[in-house]
Every structure is written in structure tokens, then in C-alpha cells.
Amino acid sequence: MPKSSLAEFQLQKKRTSPFVFVYGNKRQKRETQTTKRTKSQPIISKSVDCTRRPDQLDDAIFRKYLASLCSQSALLGFGLGFPGLVSPNDAYIYDAFVNGFMVAVSTQLTHERLQPGAVFIPHGAANPWLLDVFYACGAAFLAANRKDMRELAESRMAKVMGQFQQIAARASSDSDSKWLVVALLSLSLREKFYGLDGHRTVLFLRMAFQLIRNWPKTRLANRRHLEVLPEDIRPVVSDQHWLLTPIERTLVESFAYNYSVIGLVLDQKSQILLDSPFEVFDELQPLLDQQLYKCPAPWMNNPVMGAALPAFELASKAGWLQLQYPFNESMRHQAIALFRLAKYFVPPVLPADVRFSQPKHVCKRLLDSCLAARIVAQGAYILLYKMLYPETLEIDSDIQRRISDFINDLEQLSFHSSISAILTWPFSIIGTAIVEKDQRDYMLWRLRNFGYATKNSCFESIVEFLNRIWDAGLGWQALLDKTNFDKLFI
Asked: What is the pTM of this model?
């Protein structure tokens, strides 16, 4: 990619807004919208190399932008005093972590101080064990598509886990535990690239949640959230005492996302390790509601889930109810209430002034986030529908209308869209209800393209899962039997 292309996407500050944007405003005009498929046109699967879409260049440049932010964070780490001497092999793996792993898990166009790379990477500067965690993540990223790197990935993870209990015990008394939350969330994300241990991921998330809920700001935020203050006292009490820092805000949301999707790959015996999302999200709500920066779109303050944050709350609760299936009367009432929310879910829309004031490639990133919200809500709806009405076949007109809407939304996502990294949960759910061969072929094609772009093994896992379900003739009946998800990891 020529450097001249990257120069057009250097950070610039708009005079009309204090927000720092990714893209410049001097790009030549070109068509960026995806051509819509009519019902009479078949879906034709071609290789990515043979398909030329204008937005593929934008995807590549957006990743270059993310890599530049991650590299800046890494340089900051070296300036703070990198622990120990780095061998050439370590440097190679660390580069894979910075410019590969962290770029792949950064999905949203958000404020640069909220980007996961800007939050995670600097913490390794003064902590040798956290640096080992980063090495393990970098090696897992490399191993996702390279069999010769798998032994290295396993050895690096074994080194981390060999010290895990000792480190965790010592850190429990650390007043500033954010570095350990970074480690736990990094290890949770590592499983998406090379790992199959969902039970271990639950333990990481369980520990991370305990650390987050013990932050003084978390306790204060929840206390204020529950208190009913008289009108004459409210203006006097300042919110600044519990306002999260950018680091805290990103860590909280990273936990919330990983927690939301993990329930799908667990069996019913593992539910005792999970707190109910009906309680967790109530506790996290005052933290997730905080908007630290004035951005063109409010969901740009959500660095991991973007506009899909409320949809992932639905998904988390639907996944937890799946662990309780078949329902008793109380659970059925909860499922019905949640089903109504999913059915009438209205995703955020891009403000009109943003559409007319920002470049098309900026609007595309923000619109992708809105599409993600709709796709996640569709997944929650389909899962809840099957559990509430188990005798219904997937050929039901309402379900197939939802599938058509999903395919239309999927077509609007570019082939290498970064947002795909957070859509593994709905892809797995919705895919089971697809019955038309052309739609199935298209779904698999898109999954493989997303996996190619993100170097994420989850997508291949979903492909194998869907092929197994379809070949067995199960369809969305698979949603009622958790054993069907045993080999899936997302």
C-alpha cells in the first residue's frame, strides 16, 4: 500500500469539533455503497482476491490507523522502561501482539484515548508477567493461521499459567489492579485466536469482574445509582468523584462484551460460575452509561461494542436463559419480557448532521456499528423465539423474514470489516436458522472472508459448527441442545 494513501488518513482536528478524527477530508469522491442484491439475483461467491470493492481499501487503511495508535502506545511503553532485554524472537511475537492481535480486537471508530490498544499496551511497560501475557497473545495470533507456531503458542501460554495463581494472589492486595484486569481480559481474548478452553475463560472473566466491582469508583457509582437524592441536593453532588478514566471505561466495556458472549459456549453445569447478566448489567449500567468525550455519534464513547452495546445486553441475557432451558414459570416470564424487547429493538441511527458534515468513510464506520446493533438484536430474537416456541420450524415466515433482513445487513458490511470481530455470537445463532442454499453459501463465504481479515480462528470454528448442524438436518433445533455447542468457540 503506497504511503501517499496513508497520508490522506492522518489524524486531523476539525475546527467545528474538539474530536480528533481518523480520516482526512481531501479524498477524491468515489462510490462507497454496496450494490444491493434483488430477490431475483442469486448470491455468487467469489474469492476475495477477485472481488474489488471500494470499501476494502478503507478497511485496510483503518487497520493501518489502528496499528499506528498501537505502535505509539508500544513506544510509550519503551519510554517508561521496558522490563528486561527483548530477544529477536520476543520482539517478533511482541510485534504480532501490537500490530496484529490488538488491531484485530479493536473494532470501533472511537476516540483515540479509548482504543483498546491505547489502554492495554502501556501497562506491560513495567510488569514482566503482563509482558508474558502479551507474548502469549501475540503467539496465539500467529498460530491462528500457522500450524508451525502452535507449539510456541502453547508454550507461551503454559509459562503464563505457571505463574498465574501466584501473581493473582499477590495482586489481590494491590490497590491499583488495572494491570491485572488488562491481563485477564487479554487472556480471554486470546482464546478467540488459539484456544478451546471456555471454562478457563469464565474463570478469567469472573476474576476480572471481582476486581472491577471492587474499584472505589464502581462502588460509589452504584451507591449513587441506587440512592434517591432530593432535588435540592442533586446539583451540589458532583459526578466527577466517580467519573471513570478512559482506561477504566475501556476495561469495563471489554469485560462486558466478553461476558456477554461466553454463555453460548458453556454447558449448564458451568452456569454456577457465572453471575446472572440481569444482575451484572444492572451493576455495570452507571459505568457503561458514562460518555467521556463529545463525539459526532454518542456510541463512539463505547470502544468495544459501539452502537451495539444495548443489543449485547439482550444477547447476554438470552444466552443466560439458554442455560436455564427448559424454563420453569419464572424463567419463562423473564424470557417473554426479553423477547418483546428484542422484537421491538430499535438500533441507533446516524445523526443527520454527521451524514452531511463527515466524509463517507467516517460515516461508513459509524453505520457499520448501527448494523452490528441490529444483527446482534436479531440473534437474540431468534434464540428467544426458539426457546419460547420450540415446535416452530425455521421455515416460519417471520423467521425467514428476519433471515432476509440479516442477509441484507450482512451485505452492507464490507468484506474485511473490523466490526465482524464482535459479531461471532449472532452469526452462530442466526446461521442455524438459514435454510436457503444460496444464503448458506453466502454466509460461509462472508465468515471465511472475515476470518481472513481478522486472523481469528473463531470464524473457522463457526463455519465448522454450521456445516455440522446443517449436514445433520438440525437447523435451529440445535439451539435447544447445549451439547451442539461443545466444539464451538467464539
From this structure: 0.87
